[in-house]
Amino acid sequence: xxxxxLDAGPWRAIWRRFRRNRGAMAGLVVIIAIAAVSIGAxxxxxxxxNAILDMVALKSQAPSLAHPFGTDPASRDVLSRVLxxxxxxxxxxxxxxxxAATVGTMYGAISGYVGGVLDDVLMRVTDACLxxxxxxxxxxxxxxxxxxxxxxLVLVLGLTSWFGVSRLVRAEIMxxxxxxxxxxxxxxxxxxxxxxxxxxxxxxxxxxxVATALGIGNVVLLEAGLSYLGVGxxxxxxxxxxxxxxxxxxxRALWWLSVFPGLAIVSAVIAINAVGDGLREAADPRQ
Length: 287
Known about the structure:
Elements: H1 8-19, H2 22-39, H3 41-44, H4 78-114, H5 116-131, H6 134-145, H7 150-158, H8 163-176, H9 180-187, H10 192-203, H11 205-228, H12 240-246, H13 256-283
Helix pairs in contact: 1-13, 2-4, 2-13, 4-5, 4-7, 4-8, 4-11, 4-13, 5-8, 8-11, 11-12, 11-13, 12-13
């Protein structure tokens, strides 16, 4: 058999092993719950995220039955903003990591498959990019960009997240390119593109998916940090990071503006990492 197809067999086995991991399953349940309430925010949120309720009577109100997460200095309901903010934060993280996975996979696959001088040059470029502290790189890019749109923020985060994926893919491709079934495919007249896309890349789908899943949690934290510093998601959009930034000047007095979005970030990141670790163990049971 030449190569490996994405049939149901291997993925069914991965799913069986994944289900036996209680921590991973708990993380999956939490992620599904957070995604469900975020996607359904227009239906479950009591108010619009930017609705100014009453600048006199409801400004900076502590949590109560009427407003379980309190209100911010603009009298907006924090619960509604956290729910809508989840849509923005998670969507940015997922789209950014899909961008990173696509770029990193193609970059690493070409580097690993071609080898030689091209591999040396591409890897030195990757090493140079990895040597730059990422948060400083992101702050510089966002500062130069001005007030980035959501699309621009996705691109910035995605195009600075692919370095690790590319190294992973390169190592996997280099380990597979001399296998018998790859040699047989070449002997049968298969082009390099055919070998790469039909035989090699399907075989490394599992580690790429795991790396992408783990990277989503990291991007959630990065987006929250950038938004907290005022260079990430810009008004009128709400994200978990800029909700915390609304109370940054009075953290002690307006503690709920940090606690509730912070809990959402922590819950999402822990759950995503649990799912990623579960996928890694299920995809490679030898670990």
